[in-house]
Design goal:
single chain; mainly beta; Tachylectin-2, Chain A; five-stranded mixed β-sheet; four-stranded antiparallel β-sheet; 0% helix; binds beta-L-arabinofuranose
Length: 312
């Protein structure tokens, strides 16, 4: 079984991992990611870091989601008041990515989807961050993730990118409503600043946001990490609140085997772990990935020691 885009959390004392379930869909590689034809999700767990992995079986299938037709990409999950809320992207029959939520009684599902996508949602790669009693959803991805088709707030079938010297398109954030099923506010941009306090530009594709947002907190600082897509890094930027702005700090994970790079960071018993994927098991097939983990070390100055998957 091929797995990718691992979102990891600690629930009930175990590490639970929420990945995409890669399959051979028979669609050739293209820049829209049409070769990623995933149809369902499984949830995995391990009692201890690097321990034995349990596959908890089918958690949600595209056929159970009334509004979704195909391409169930990177998901995430959180817990509130004993219920588990599973967030996922999928394409509608008209080919537009939206985000959905499904509810379960256990961390591993099964999850029962809401009949409609989340109002005001768009694009891909939802990641939910719990800060005290508040829950924030981050999301977004350019190119095949369609973020560049929502620049007016409405979907357009035309791509619209800022020019190279203009601020880059940003990932999105919105606080979730108390019932976890909708946004409680209009989505905002997650702005990443350079060392001079200026937003990263479209042309800065070694550092600008592409997809795979994630947030973790270390020593009171918020770390926003993300993939740079066509330059294949996982970068990170730091800020003093969940909305940002965040200031670019460096590379968390260097390019891995395969085109995509996607990760999460989880803390267990005072140590931090990076979950990511590469294409080692399939021998480099970009759409057939496998999840991995490594310890993530924060330095005293708050910087992160860069992980090189080829050295792990
Ligand atoms: O798995 C499909 C897509 O590939 C994800 O949504 C992106 O983040 C990239 O990993």
């Amino acid at each position: 079984m091929y797995t990718a885009d691992p979102s990891a959390h600690v629930f009930e004392g175990k590490i639970y991992i929420y990945p995409s379930h890669d399959i051979e869909g028979g669609v050739p590689f293209n820049d829209d990611g049409s070769h990623f034809q995933m149809q369902d999700y499984h949830v995995f767990s391990m009692d201890e870091p690097f321990g034995e992995v349990t596959d908890h079986g089918l958690a949600l299938s595209v056929g159970d989601v009334p509004w979704a037709e195909r391409q169930m990409w990177a998901p995430d999950c959180t817990e509130k008041d004993g219920k588990y809320y599973f967030y996922f992207p999928a394409k509608t029959a008209s080919g537009v990515f939206k985000l959905g939520v499904a509810i379960g009684d256990k961390p591993y599902g099964p999850f029962i989807p809401q009949p409609e996508p989340i109002k005001g949602s768009s694009s891909i790669d939802p990641a939910v961050y719990k800060d005290g009693d508040d829950y924030y959803l981050y999301w977004g991805g350019i190119w095949g993730g369609q973020l560049q088709r929502w620049t007016t707030g409405e979907y357009s079938d035309q791509d619209q990118y800022p020019s190279d010297d203009e601020p880059a398109l940003c990932g999105k954030i919105a606080k979730l409503r108390d019932d976890m099923l909708e946004f409680s506010e209009a989505p905002r941009d997650v702005v990443i600043l350079d060392e001079n306090g200026q937003p990263l530009t479209t042309g800065d594709n070694e550092r600008r946001f592409f997809e795979a947002p994630w947030v973790h907190k270390y020593n009171g600082t918020y770390y926003f990490s993300y993939s740079t897509g066509d330059t294949h890094n996982i970068c990170y930027a730091t800020g003093d609140n969940p909305y940002g702005p965040f200031t670019y700090r460096g590379i968390m994970l260097e390019p891995v085997l395969g085109w995509t790079n996607h990760h999460s960071v989880v803390e267990k018993d005072g140590k931090y772990y990076l979950f990511y994927h590469d294409c080692e098991i399939s021998g480099g097939e970009t759409h057939l990935r496998n999840i991995k983990m490594a310890e993530l070390i924060h330095n005293e100055d708050g910087s992160i020691q860069t992980v090189n998957a080829f050295a792990e």
